[in-house]
Write a structure and sequence with these properties.
Helix content is 23%, strand content 43%. It is built from 3 helices and 10 strands; from the N terminus they run E-E-E-E-E-E-E-E-E-E-H-H-H.
Length: 177
């Protein structure tokens, strides 16, 4: 089963405390929920990648600006360092974006991900996990095809471009101040 991700929470064992602010948006050309989650205290920096290609995506003072759009099958997370510089934009392809019975927005992550680096490079992650989930019967062929279709749509519609993402995040930050 895919992992459920709540918009205003961190699920990482090294994070000791956060602050979070969430809002509903219909005013910036995209409808959905947005959240700004700041790491106040973490026991050790959270690194991803291997060798010289490692980057820090979580440390004291880091923040994640998240967008969960209505009627879409993706969630965006913009990661900022402690000086409010963008580290990366991360996209989870999702099976469903919804709100639970307590009014908490969430996404059911469907394995396939993409990252946009500040230089514009787009990286695709976890295609192997998506294929394994299909092979193991955790997802259907329809889910598999939809995940690839969503990723292709994000690329074709220019959502995964630095210019678009900078404008989107500036507008979201204005809503969350």
């Amino acid at each position: 089963m895919e992992k459920r991700k709540y918009l205003n929470q961190f699920n990482h064992p090294t994070i000791k405390s956060i602050s979070a602010k969430m809002t509903r948006t219909d005013s910036i050309g995209i409808a959905g929920y947005a959240a700004l989650v700041r790491i106040l205290e973490i026991t050790q920096p959270y690194m991803v990648g291997e060798g010289n290609a490692q980057i820090c995506i979580g440390d004291n003072g880091y923040a994640e600006l998240r967008l969960l759009p209505d009627g879409e099958n993706w969630m965006m997370t913009a990661i900022y360092d402690s000086h409010d510089r963008i580290v990366e934009w991360y996209f989870d392809v999702t099976r469903e974006n919804a709100v639970d019975e307590y009014g908490e927005p969430y996404a059911d992550d469907l394995y396939l991900d993409a990252a946009v680096m500040p230089d514009g490079q787009v990286l695709i992650f976890d295609e192997d996990e998506l294929a394994a989930a299909l092979e193991q019967g955790k997802i259907t062929q329809q889910d598999f095809d939809m995940a690839h279709g969503v990723l292709q749509h994000l690329i074709d519609s220019k959502i995964l471009t630095v210019a678009h993402l900078e404008t989107l995040c500036t507008n979201l930050m204005t809503l969350l101040k």
